[in-house]
Design a protein that fits this description.
single chain; 195 residues; alpha/beta; Rossmann fold; four-stranded parallel beta sheet; 7 helices
């Protein structure tokens, strides 16, 4: 059996990427974990998630690449400006998917490989919207894997526990954190983290 074809896996975080790495390998692909998440705030949270994604890549023997070319200030200007009050899962999120997947498409093109994203493992993300953003960013280079299928999210939770990975409780930006904190008062303790 020959070497697996490489694919860039845009990783929103380590826990979500874990099940995606397994699934891609089962499909005969070798993922390169690409951490490109200028949306994540504050900076300490960004670094914590990046370090956990890097640690996961080491545990699973995958190559890791960090996108250092986009800043949170740029993300706020290009994605969030004018959409600060959009509901979670709405237009701001769609724009965020487009921003991050455009970064992934650029990296994949530089490497001469296709790309996909771990965003679809989360039950909080509409896969069709993620797929639209991926195709808009990379055309045929985007591979639309719906990682939440076949119990992908449950598997990611299991692997995160097994590897001792940090699991966040909001998607990433300050607006998702604000919305999560505002809604936390009405939710029972131990709600499902946003992945």
């Amino acid at each position: 059996m020959g070497e697996a074809s490489k694919i860039l896996l845009h990783a929103c975080c380590g826990p979500c990427a874990s099940a995606c790495i397994e699934r891609l390998r089962a499909e005969g692909l070798e993922p390169v974990v690409f951490y490109s998440n200028a949306n994540i705030a504050p900076d300490g949270e960004y670094r914590h998630r990046r370090d956990e994604a890097r640690r996961l890549a080491g545990i699973m023997g995958a190559e890791f690449v960090e996108d250092t070319g986009a800043s949170h200030a740029e993300w706020r200007e290009k994605v969030a400006r004018g959409f600060e009050d959009a509901p979670e899962g709405g237009e701001r999120c769609r724009r965020c998917f487009e921003f991050n997947l455009a970064r992934a498409a650029g990296q994949a093109a530089r490497m001469g490989i296709g790309f996909t994203t771990s965003l679809t493992v989360s039950p909080h993300k509409r896969s069709a919207t993620v797929f639209e953003a991926g195709r808009a960013a990379g055309g045929g280079a985007f591979r639309p894997f719906d990682f939440k299928k076949r119990d992908g999210f449950r598997r990611s939770v299991t692997l995160a526990k097994e590897f001792g990975l940090y699991r966040q409780d909001y998607c990433g930006c300050e607006f998702s954190r604000r919305d999560r904190e505002a809604g936390a008062a009405g939710r029972p303790p131990g709600g499902t983290p946003n992945g």
